[in-house]
Amino acid sequence: MNIIVCIKQVPGTAQVEIDEKTGVLKRDGVAAKMNPFDLFALESAMRLKEKFGGKVTALTMGPPQAEKVLREAFMMGADDAVLLSDRKFGGADVLATSYTISQGIRHIGEYDLIICGKQTTDGDTAQVGAELAEFLNIPHLTNVTRLLDMAEGKLDVEAEIPLHVVDVRMTLPCLLTVEKGIFEPRLPSYRRMLATADKPIRTLSLQELEDKDEKHYGLNGSPTQVQRIFPPEVKDEKESWNGPAEEISTKLYGLLKEKRFLGELR
Ligand SMILES: Cc1cc2nc3c(=O)[nH]c(=O)nc-3n(C[C@H](O)[C@H](O)[C@H](O)COP(=O)(O)OP(=O)(O)OC[C@H]3O[C@@H](n4cnc5c(N)ncnc54)[C@H](O)[C@@H]3O)c2cc1C
Prior knowledge:
It contains six helices and 13 strands. It has one domain (2-221): Rossmann fold. By secondary structure, the chain is an alpha/beta fold. It is globular, with a radius of gyration of 23 Å. Helix 2 (67-76) crosses helix 5 and helix 3 (94-108) packs across helix 4 (128-136). The chain has a nine-stranded mixed beta sheet, sandwiched between helices. A two-stranded antiparallel ribbon has the order 2-5. It has a two-stranded antiparallel sheet with strand order 3-4. It has helices at 36-52, 67-76, 94-108, 128-136, 190-196, 245-258; strands at residues 2-6, 9-11, 18-19, 24-25, 32-34, 55-61, 80-84, 113-117, 140-151, 154-161, 164-171, 174-178, 202-204. Flavin-adenine dinucleotide binds at residues 6-8, 24-25, 35, 37-38, 41, 59-62, 91-94, 97, 101, 116-117, 119-120, 122-129, 224, 226.
């Protein structure tokens, strides 16, 4: 079974500056880590491989330093790694990101299953998995909480959608996005770190992809335009009241009504 796991390098801190002119995150010089949700995707792939055999390929799209998360994936047991990296991919919105990853996966070729995390901790849209599946024209299921069984080209999974838990039989090849907690991610192995330190990572640039039209990638391929980006206004005015409970509760009720949090008492 060939499994591709999509992982993203995200800032290791919430203190990331934004270029107000371009609306782009200033990622240079900021400590980075693997998107925590992608650890669950990797662990899911490893469990399937351990049970049914096969190969796990970790794939990331990002700047050259994103190689670090692929090395981490090796330490968790991935067999192969692909870095999609080109300056022309920069500034991509979700659509362009998903399209670029789909082109990378078409280049890799044969696969049975693609696993993504539920969302990232920076972009946070939770849309890449679904859009990627659409570009590849394969079925997908999001919010997967359990892998139940696999036989004869079908994978049974459980997913939690709002208000319901569903059991679904997916036909391979397909794409899943997995929830945090599907499995406990294993720790990176020191032994594997030593064993894979020189393991080559395949790097794909625009030139290797089937679609070489620059208009489909990066800022050029991103229909979403950031018009303005600004930190939300922080209101930290405080007021404290002292007095008997009845007086304070009447005052509080009046204030909530004035601010239109409450209507008239019946
Ligand atoms: C309007 C707009 C403009 C943007 N402009 C920029 C910009 O100029 N520069 C910039 O750096 N970012 C930019 N972003 C953010 C960038 O588009 C997103 O980070 C990217 O599309 C991935 O989306 P996400 O982080 O929300 O992923 P989600 O959809 O939340 O991620 C779900 C899963 O998809 C997979 N995945 C997501 N991204 C990757 C990846 N890169 N490689 C491999 N797997 C991945 C992972 O498995 C992840 O768990 C912009 C976003 C928007 C909405």
